[in-house]
Amino acid sequence: MPAVGTPPARPALRPPALAFRRTLAGILAGALTAVLLVLLPSTQASAAPVLLSQGKPVTASSQESGGTPATAAVDGDTGTRWSSAFADPQWIRVDLGAPTAVSQVVLRWEAAHAKSYRIELSDNGTDWTSAHATANSPGGTETLNVTGTARYVRMLGLTRATGYGYSLWEFQVYGGTDGGPTLPGGGDLGPNVHVFDPATPGIQAKVDQIFKEQESAQFGTGRHALLFKPGTYSNLNAQIGFYTQIAGLGLRPGDTTFHGDVTVDAGWFNGNATQNFWRSAENLTLNPVSGTNRWAVSQAASFRRMHVKGGLNLAPDGYGWASGGYIADSKIDGQIGNYSQQQWYTRDSAIGGWSNSVWNQVFSGTQGAPATGFPEPRYTTLDTTPVSREKPFLYLDGNEYKVFAPAKRTNARGTTWASGTPAGESIPLSRFYVVKPGATAATLNRAVAQGLHLLFTPGVYHVDRPIEINRANTVVLGLGLATIIPDNGVTAMKVADVDGVRLAGFLIDAGPVNSPTLLEVGPQNASADHAANPTTVQDVYLRIGGAGPGKATTGMVVNSDDTVVDHTWIWRADHGEGVGWETNRADYGLRVNGDDVLATGLFVEHFNKYDVEWYGERGRTIFFQNEKAYDAPNQAAIQNGATKGYAAYRVDDSVDVHEGWGMGSYCYYNVDPTIRQDHGFKVPVKPGVKFHSLLTVSLGGNGQFEHVVNDTGAPTSGTSTVPSTVTSFP
């Protein structure tokens, strides 16, 4: 509503709320506000009634200033507030996401309160019914018992009690989640989580049995987590196959020690490690039997929070091909033998040395890393990582399971645990809904609405609607490469434009009906500032085809500002079942619309058009690995107007600031080796757009690149698989 007259400036009665958003900080009073939440930790889900409104999408008729947005009334912070323009009437409305049984509304007024108002309910946001009305409100804190079912709840202020606007510290709506029963938190971890302690009999035999099942089960349905309680384990060689996670259950890697190895080799594929995908090792200390542990992996195989008291060999026995890889928050006392690894990214770690480069070896925040030498040796090294927040992990506090959520770091270098207990938050398992096969998306959404986090146990899950993560600071953690398959062309998961969501440790596998997207981080036109508490996407993998027919127009869309994508593999399958140029059609891998998004360890491959498109400002990528789609039938199939082929990584012409380090694109057009690709990278030529250590490679002469970036860089040629490089651009 427009303000009446020009009232005097109002003195602040409490400290002002946080700034609304960088680009909206000067919004005028009376403007319509429509943003999504800023929020604090969830309430205990077992309590009744449940707080439904905290962190939910909220809109208002107006706001007094940039420091008093509507989101401040649902953020759980009694030191921040929403305040309206100085006029009648005004309203604030919260969207609960789905029709929900409402039993109570709590209004925590600032001194500028309503004299008369109504609490109204609606299923559609247009047609309203009154649940409570008063003509003489006392202000302060009002607890109102109401009855009804609604998706939208609003306070409609009719008459102000002061000359100022309407001002609420908190607007809290309580009730059930959908009229169904309250879901329990915690519980057992299901049959595919195998927990060991040093006294467990037959550990080696059990680990060997699981490896035998999973060694070559590249597209199988088995999923396993091998979890080791704190203690010392001797004479153990844990070989890790597909969809297998091995992890210690201590708070620090040194709490769980192996006198033995955690091994990945490639005997199942005749010494070729380029298909050793989808597995992980975390939170262990290793004393390798030979002095060197072998971890010969390719994409989607993370090595996190590990301490190797010796060396680490990244190549398979016989030094066959390998196409990894990723290390983070780890300490390797000895040398890391890169050997045949085509590319590798190491972040926020400490290493005793590095043996050699092949095409693209990248380091950020890594003590002991070799200096930048690109183009020869092909090392790209950043002293620190601009923003990082380690992946959440399950651990035991005595006999109680908890999830540790590490704190955000800026300009990070070295591990989080070198000085002892890392900084962060411990969340009891009782605050998680433990997801087991057979759970529905409706149940998961109800759990989130209750205030629960989600812990997916190892398994394969079908969803008939999006999993909606619309509460700030929600943790969604998968064990054993838990896999989500969207049915009937839905998006598997959507995250609201809220603070601090953590997605980690799961695979989304496209279904046979085309999905517009598989994962959306923030809605279209998301605008909230999350710099202080970003959403992180870690060890989250997307797959289209391979396990069967799958289709998706775009793999992942990032709309929320400040998101950190830390190690993802977004893959349109080039082998397996359901594979063909149109059979597993997927035009785009990753699209970034948000500002200030950081990608660390970005692997995106084989999409029909652009693998990565970037529209947001101030984006940064540290390490990028790409192959163009193998199966293009001919030049016409990839022709992009007058341009030969779609770039692997395109920054939109509208972008003014963008930077990338250590980025490579390869082509292997094995259906039509005569295909020519104009470039691997297409970016605007502006002072703020900078790239370092770029390369393109033709694998065995199956197709060729004309340039590396735009019209810069020598063409690839011949069959010798020698990269064409550009050290810096422009």
From TrEMBL:
<dbReference type="Pfam" id="PF00754">
    <property type="entry name" value="F5_F8_type_C"/>
</dbReference>
<dbReference type="InterPro" id="IPR012334">
    <property type="entry name" value="Pectin_lyas_fold"/>
</dbReference>
<feature type="compositionally biased region" description="Polar residues">
    <location>
        <begin position="59"/>
        <end position="68"/>
    </location>
</feature>
<dbReference type="InterPro" id="IPR008979">
    <property type="entry name" value="Galactose-bd-like_sf"/>
</dbReference>
<dbReference type="InterPro" id="IPR000421">
    <property type="entry name" value="FA58C"/>
</dbReference>
<feature type="compositionally biased region" description="Low complexity">
    <location>
        <begin position="712"/>
        <end position="730"/>
    </location>
</feature>
<feature type="region of interest" description="Disordered">
    <location>
        <begin position="711"/>
        <end position="730"/>
    </location>
</feature>
<dbReference type="InterPro" id="IPR011050">
    <property type="entry name" value="Pectin_lyase_fold/virulence"/>
</dbReference>
<dbReference type="InterPro" id="IPR059186">
    <property type="entry name" value="SACTE_4363"/>
</dbReference>
<protein>
    <submittedName>
        <fullName>Discoidin domain-containing protein</fullName>
    </submittedName>
</protein>
<feature type="region of interest" description="Disordered">
    <location>
        <begin position="58"/>
        <end position="79"/>
    </location>
</feature>
<feature type="domain" description="F5/8 type C">
    <location>
        <begin position="38"/>
        <end position="176"/>
    </location>
</feature>
